[in-house]
Amino acid sequence: MSRRLSEFSDRVYWLVCQIPTGLVATYGQIATYAGSPRAARAVGNLMKRSLEIDREVPWHRVINAKGAISFKGDTARAELQRRLLEAEGISFDDSGRCDLETHRWQPREVFWYD
DNA sequence: TTAGTGACTGCAT
DNA sequence: CATGCAGCCACTA
Q: In CATH, what is the architecture of A3-101?
């Protein structure tokens, strides 16, 4: 595992920790801020893994580009994520999507990579 | 080193 | 709108 790769995951976890309560970010957003605009899928993998390793990361605040919760088979986990978000004031419509225009996290700081 | 995987995404249908 | 699908890429075995 190269240094560059581990830096990516570290950035991802750090960024997710920056998302304040009540706001959400998409996998694509995190990937972009972490330096790899097209690694949204990889971000999803990291979020899934953050559950296994005991790391204090607000993984529930990361959703897909449609404003919906992504899951593959793990219904319980998806429901938990939805409850956590609703507890933070985020509501979902009938199709299970929230309003990204309203709740999307906009980082004020500037991130850079080398 | 290589091949397989998936909590993604945007565009086509 | 909802589905399907190819492209993408960090991570793993």
A: Orthogonal Bundle (1.10)
Determine the distance between A51 (CA) and C2 (C1') in angstroms.
Answer: 31
Question: Does at least one atom of strand C sit less than 7 Å from the CB of A70?
Answer: no
Q: What is the pLDDT of residues A48-87, one digit of tens each?
A: 999 887 678 999 999 999 999 998 778 899 999 999 999 9
- Residue partners of A12: CB distance under 8 A and separation at least 6: A30, A31, A34, A43, A46
Domain ranges for chain A, please list them.
Answer: 3-101
Place of tokens 């204090």: A56
What is the pTM for the complete model shown? Answer: 0.92
CA dihedral for A28, A32, A33, A36, sign (positive or negative)? positive
Among A8, A6, A33, A9, CA closest to A19: A33
Residues in A 22-81 whose C-beta is less than 7 A from nucleic strand B are 26-29, 40-45, 47-48, 50-51, 59-60, 62, 64-66, 70-74, 77, 81
